[in-house]
Each structure stands twice: as C-alpha cells, then as structure tokens.
Amino acid sequence: MARHVTAAARALYADVVLTFGNVLFAVSLFVVWGILTLIGVIVDQGQSPDQYVQTYAPPIARAVLRLNLDNVYHSPWYVGIIGLILLSLAVCTFKRVIPARLPPLRPVKVERIPLHGLFETDGGERSVRERVAAFFAARGWRLRRRTFDGAEWSFADKYDWARRGVLVAHAGFVIIAAGTTLYWARGFSGELAVADGATSQVARTGAVIRLDDFAYRIAPTQTKSGMVYQPIDYVSHVTVSGRDGIARKMTVRVNHPIDVDGTLYYQASYGFGMRFRLERNGVSSSALAGRTLLEGDSFDVPGTGRSVLYERFVPTVDRTSGMPTADPRVNDPAAVVAVTQSGVPLGEVMLPLRGALDLGDGWRLIAQRYVLYSGFEYRHDPGVPLVGIGAFVLLAGLVISFYFLPARLYVRVDDLGSGRCRVGIAATTVKGYDVFESEFSRLMVALKACTS
Amino acid sequence: MNLPWDELLLAVALAAYTLGALALTVYFFSRDESFRKFGEPLAIVGCAAQFAQLAVRFETTHVWPLLNLYGSLSLFSAMSVAIFIGFAVRYRLWFAGGFVLALAAIFLAYGVTWYEGTMPPVPSLQSYWAKIHVPIVVSSYAAFLVAFVFSCIYLLKYYAQRARSAATARWLESLPALPQLDVIVYRAVAIGLPLISVGIITGAMWAHEAWGAYWQWDPKETAALFSWIVYLGYMHLHTRNAWRGLRTSWVSVIGFLSIIFCYLGVNIWISGLHSYKV
Fold first, then answer.
1. Residue A182 and residue A184: Cα distance in Å, rounded?
2. Is residue B167 over pLDDT 50?
3. Model-level pTM?
4. Which of B126, B214, B229 lies nearest to residue A255, judging by beta carbons?
C-alpha cells in the first residue's frame, strides 16, 4: 500500500515538474496574468458596487463584483496566478535553466548541426590543430580539448558565464516577490489630514506632526484652449517628534518626502476645512464649537433630525453669475453644504464666507472662516531595499541574457593524409542558429584564411 | 510664446519624414537604389531636426520638453527613427524605412494636435526622475515600433510566400530571408524589453518618492506591466524552435498594440496618476 502511494506521489511529482517546467505552460500563465492585468486597467478599480451597476450592463456588473474584478490585483485569482508563475519559474530554474547552464562536453555529428562548416587545408594534424587553437584563443574563445574514442575534439566557448543570465533574471524576480511579501507582512501605510496650526499623532508610529504652515502656488497660464490654473507647488512646513521625542522642523513637498523613524511621510493632497457657527434664535450652539469640518464631514442639527454635510470648498465664486469658477486661488470663497432630513436630501446650497443658511426651526448656519489643511500619506515599507536589489538583479539578468550570446563551437580536425587535414566546425547557441549565422560565416571565412 | 526655431525645425522634421517615407516606400517595392539614396538623408535630417527641436524647446522655455503628450510623442518619433537608422546602417535594412518614417510622421503630427503651449510642470513632475524615466520609457516604445515594422514585413513575406504568386516571387526574394527578419525583430525587442524594464523600475523609484509607494496599480503602471508581460512571453516563446518566427512575429505585433494602448489609450481615455496630456 505504502509503496503504491509512493509510486503515485512520484508520478504526480513528475507530472507537476513536467508541466511547470514547460516554457509553453509558463507562457500560458503569462497570458492569464496579462489578461487579469488588462482587466484591472479597463475596469475602474476600488469603486463602490453602485458605481459598477451604473457603468456596466447588469450581467457584466455582477461578474465584476462576484469575480473580485473590482479589486483584481488583490483578488485570489491574481495572487494565485503570481504564485503559479513563481512555482513555474522555480521549476524551470531547477529543471531547465541550471542543468542547461553548462552543457557537457561531448562529440557531435558536425554535419547534422544546421550551423556547421567543413573545409580542407594543408598541414599536419597537430599543426592545423595548433593554428585553430591559436585562432580561437586570439578571439577570446575559451578552448578545451577532450578525447572521445581516440578522436580529439576541441570545444570553444564564448560568453560561457552569460549562460547564467536567465538564472540571474529569475532570481531577480524571486527577490522582488520576497520584497513585496515583506511589505504585506511587516509594512503599513495610511493617510492623515492636519489643519493649519493643528497637531496630529500617527497611531502606528507614535510620531506627532504639527502643521506650522501649508502653502500652495498656482500659475494661471494662457493656453490655446483657454486659461489653465496650473498647480506648481504644494509645501507643508511641519514640526515632527519621532520616537526620541525631539521636535524637528521639516518641510514636506511633492517628490520630497520626510523620513521619521523609518516611515516616510509624503505630501499627498490639500484642502480647505471650514469653521461654521450653528446658532438658534441668535444664540450660538455648542454643537460645532471649536470644530473644523473637513470636506466630507457632516453634523446633526440638535433635535431636528436634520444633518448638514460640508461637501466641498469653492475658492472663487463668480460675483456676476454666482457660480464657482475654475480658479483654485481663494478670492471669493464659499462652502457647498447639503442638508438632509432623516436621510432624505433637502437640497444643496453654496454658502458664501460669512453668509448664513436658514435651517428651519430657528436654526442658522454661518460659514465663519476657512482653514487650509494638508493631506499626508505615510508608509513604512521594509521591503523596499529587497525590491530595489531584485529589480537590479532582474535587469542584470535581462542584459546578460540579451546582449551576450553564449555560443559553443565543436571543432574536429581529421588527418586526410598527404599533408592535408579536414576541419569540421559546428556551432550551437542558447538562442538557436539564425541569430549566430552571420557571425559564424565571418568566423569560418577568417578561420579558413588563417589556417590555409 | 513665439518659438520660430521650434516651429521651423518641426516643419523640417515633418517634411523630411513625409518625403523620406514616400521615397523609401517606393524603394521597398521597386528596389531602385536612387530612391534609397534620396530617402536615407531625409531620415537622418528629420531625426536630427527633431532632436534639435527638443533641445531648442528646452533652451527657450526652460521646461523639460517631455512632460506632455506633444513632447513625449516628439521624442517617440525621433527615437523610432534613430533606432531604425542604427539598424539600417548596421544590417542594411533601409528597405523598411518607409514604414518607420511614415509612423514617425503620423505620431509627430498627432502630437502637434495636443500642443497647448508651454506650461510649468505640476509638482509631481518636478523631479530629476523626469529626465531619466521618460526618455527611457519612450525609447523602449520606439524600439518596439521598429520591432513591429519588421514583424509586419515578416508576416507580409510569410503570407505572400504562402500565396505563391509568380508576380511577387522576385520581389519577395529581394527581402531578407524569414529567419533573418525574425532575428531583426528579436534584436529590436532585445533593446526594448530591457529599456521598458528599466523604465518600469525607474518609474517605481520615482513613484516611491512622489506618491509614497513604488507601485500603486495605476492604469498606466498596469498597462506597462501588461506590455512587459507580452514581450516577456515573446522572449520565452523565442526560445522554442517551433514558435520562433511566425508566432513570435504575431506576439510582437500584439505587443506593439499593447504599447500604443499603454502610451496613448491610457493617457487619453483612462484617468489616473499618469494623465499628463497637455
């Protein structure tokens, strides 16, 4: 019984090795990987289910949601296919790439190899052999001699070390995968918004960030299509306390993150918070006292069942039309607020700065002032060095594989008698014969000239 | 802003590419050497004019000229022609120049339609990586364009040979043998694939600096990954005798279509972190 199970396991292992070691199987996995990747490009990722229902026909929307195509890159399919590719890569590496790395020296039938040449020349066997050896040595070929069944063969190799190119590229891919896994296992990331003058603590790291000042610069630029308000700088001046508790003044800009205890903080966004005053019959309510609402925040009007959502900030309102303009610079600002009654929308209002909105039952909402806030992203990724090394190794492997062509020449010199010899040379490369054809022709012409 | 030199050099490049394309296309079909001798310098002049134009734009505006679709398409067509010239000189392949120059002219003219004037770069583009990542990626696209052209010629010859038409038999003989065409496609892909790999890696390094993650699954990143996978498939298939030639040529054609989708489709139709059109 045990022997039977062992035989079955061996057969299964052999099947797996055969399948996963097949290049065409690897390419099939690439096809599936490519299709899944393309789906992620075409289907907007990470949207709400309603969004897909609105965008696509019902059967497609259902398929997108049920098959996790709304978050395809983190779906079991995607992770699974990467896993299969890594398995295929490992099997190919150990079963194909490493054994083929240094092919054994053995005689061949010269005429049967498509890339071969035969010519006769004057001279004794030893002399011709020496001239052939000197020819290849002068051109950087590594020559080795072996005798098989009494016949002496010469084997000339060039770029032998480059046979490891594919192995190096595969190793790079594995190192990248390891670096990525390290982030999944040990890394973290998040976002935080800090209003001008406010302080915020990052729970994961304990770092305390105070936003001393945030500024942005917009350059109005006249283009052929009209005026474009091009953002040219976002800068946050912050005071940061890390693990050591020492407060340091730092500047965060796009492309210039700061490093606090191994966690990087990035300038990600900015926005306008609003200070509202809620009053009833002219008396201020404590409901919003000292609170800055960020875009998307809401609050309840006490005892009314009404909610007010601060939707967005409008930096400049056109005074003549009363509509928002495209100018992102703050000139005549307003806040767009939406009011709901027990969840039912009542309407949306653009409330100018210092303007008031009547909420009914004696309640009024007044837009008091705006406060700039800066949006930061933070990320701790211990896998970055590994991914970097992996990328470098992968690249080195690709360069070695593509730009150095390992070739082997099988050289045999036969004594024909009467002071003449026949030289037979066959060539093989790791990339077939066509790619080496012209070089082989040149080599043969030069060798004939050299030995004659 | 008035840029007379910029516009003049652009006009020279477009005119040279158009005339060169016509001359070398006639050469492709007729093998009349006088057309080759006419087309060769036009390709070189057009390419030189384009690089000069990019340099003049940078010198005049002090804005790295590759940060919008117009600038990157300019470099794309210039690099396509430059890589082709390298191949043509090294392997005597001027017969294919008509197609490369025609595509270069089309992409350059299309790029001009996106030109909106000089604008200061947005904060995320204000990085030294723009001078490294963009030229490398665009050069990889250019190498794939050259591979695409030779793949098409391979397929043209293959299917024409199969049709066994007496009228085309002699003309087909004037083209390189199919295995040689396959080797040319392979050599062009062997330039493009390492370049796009470096492009993706440098892009990841830039993203790590600008956005806080080296990989965000942005449509542009994933479209580039898709193209990389296609060409990786090409390289793996090319190791198999049975797949080398016809099938790998088709993969190269699909690969270039994926590049066009990645380059133009994603920039224009799909919004994401890389939506830098103008």
1. 5
2. yes
3. 0.86
4. B126
